[in-house]
């Protein structure tokens, strides 16, 4: 069983920064890729960023140039550094782990395990 625990959320003013962490259980080492998603009230889940086990990454257009995803395999942890935050970044942020191929990283059905989420609130 894989467990994911997010942390690092909070409240910041526009233009500020936060770093989210997603700590995985020891079985996370065999993952194919890890993704960060977010969901704002009344909106659907939105893929934010992904990092493959070998380090390649992709981002949603809405966060390119502002967010950076990284991983520390020794700690089984994935990070999301969020800079220049905007009020529209306000959402619950979730990390998720995938163990297969063939599905776009933006599709939730590609992920087998999800964390409980951490809230990010950006005020103007």
Keywords:
single chain, four-stranded antiparallel β-sheet, mainly beta, 124 residues, 11 strands
Which ranges are low-confidence, i.e. pLDDT below 50, for 5 or more consecutive residues? none
Q: Rg to the nearest angstrom?
A: 13 Å
Q: Could you tell me the number of beta strands? A: 11
- Give the topology string: H per helix, E per strand: EEEEEEEEEEE
Question: Ends: how far apart?
Answer: 40 Å
Largest sheet: 7 strands, mixed
Q: Helical residue percent?
A: under 10%
Strand proportion: over 45%
Mean pLDDT: 95
**So what's the overall shape?**
globular
Number of helices: 0
Which structural class fits the helix and strand makeup?
A: mainly beta
Polypeptide structure, described:
There is one protein chain. This protein has 124 residues and is an all-beta fold. The strands form two sheets. Strands 2, 4, 5, 6, 9, 10 and 11 form a seven-stranded mixed beta sheet that branches. A four-stranded antiparallel beta sheet has the order 1-3-8-7, with no helix packed on it. The model has no long low-confidence stretch (mean pLDDT 95).
